[in-house]
Amino acid sequence: MPCLDISTNVNLDGLESDSIFSELTKAVSEIVEKPETFIMILLKGSVALTFGGNKEPAALAEIVSMGAINSEVKRKLIVTIGSILQNKLSIPRTRFVLKVFDAGRKSSKL
């Protein structure tokens, strides 16, 4: 189950977030080729966060997925999620950092 966790210093109070969740879910689903029903999105606003020494709008995100992560997928995730945050929250793509983790598939012995 891919999980995208976004923290931003932007105040989200009063913001209609359904369209943000919908766009992020669809984008992650398409890029990592997993069903939307498996995608988890967390969005936290008003986080104490600075970037480049100032408090202008910025975001830090992490995505964890089991498999399906390679350099092309990473690039697409960074560009697409950055564009969504820029369009929906006015966070410049140059003030967005995405950490990408592939948890891999480990076999377990029962």
From TrEMBL:
Pfam families: MIF
Recorded family membership: Belongs to the MIF family.
Gene3D superfamilies: Macrophage Migration Inhibitory Factor (3.30.429.10)
Source organism phylogeny: Eukaryota, Viridiplantae, Streptophyta, Embryophyta, Tracheophyta
PANTHER family per record: D-DOPACHROME DECARBOXYLASE, LS1-LIKE PROTEIN
Superkingdom of the source species: Eukaryota
UniProt name for this protein: Macrophage migration inhibitory factor
Coiled-coil stretches: none
Annotated Gene Ontology cellular component terms: extracellular space
An example Gene Ontology molecular-function term: phenylpyruvate tautomerase activity
